[in-house]
UniProtKB/TrEMBL annotation:
<protein>
    <submittedName>
        <fullName>DUF559 domain-containing protein</fullName>
    </submittedName>
</protein>
<feature type="domain" description="DUF559">
    <location>
        <begin position="5"/>
        <end position="112"/>
    </location>
</feature>
<dbReference type="InterPro" id="IPR011335">
    <property type="entry name" value="Restrct_endonuc-II-like"/>
</dbReference>
<dbReference type="Pfam" id="PF04480">
    <property type="entry name" value="DUF559"/>
</dbReference>
<dbReference type="InterPro" id="IPR007569">
    <property type="entry name" value="DUF559"/>
</dbReference>
<dbReference type="InterPro" id="IPR047216">
    <property type="entry name" value="Endonuclease_DUF559_bact"/>
</dbReference>
Amino acid sequence: MRRFVQRARQLRKQQTDAEAVLWRAVRNRSLARWKFRRQHVVDRFIVDFICLDARLIVEVDGATHSMDSELAYDAERTHILESCGFHVLRITNAEILANIDDVMETILAELEHRAFL
C-alpha cells in the first residue's frame, strides 16, 4: 500500500496539462459542492479523479489509450473498479483541452444521476 501512496504523490506532481485543467475545475468543491480527490488509490489502481460521495471515478485518457492493448487493459481496469462499487467515466485529454465547459456538464450530470442511486 505504501508504494501506491508514494506513486500517487509522484503522479500528482507530474500531472498532464489536461489533468491540471480538470483539477482546477473540480478542486475545492467548485463543482456544485462535490469533493474530488486526485490520484487516489482504489483496489490496486491509482485513479485520476474520484468523488467518493458519488462513487464516481473520472479517468483522463491520453493518446496511448487508443491502442488495442491499452483498450483491453482499460476495460479490465474499469471492470475491477466497477466491481468495487464505482462508476468509471472516461474523458480524453483532447475533450478537456478543447472544451472544459462541456466536460464539466458531463461530469455534473453523472454526479447528479449518481446522487439518486
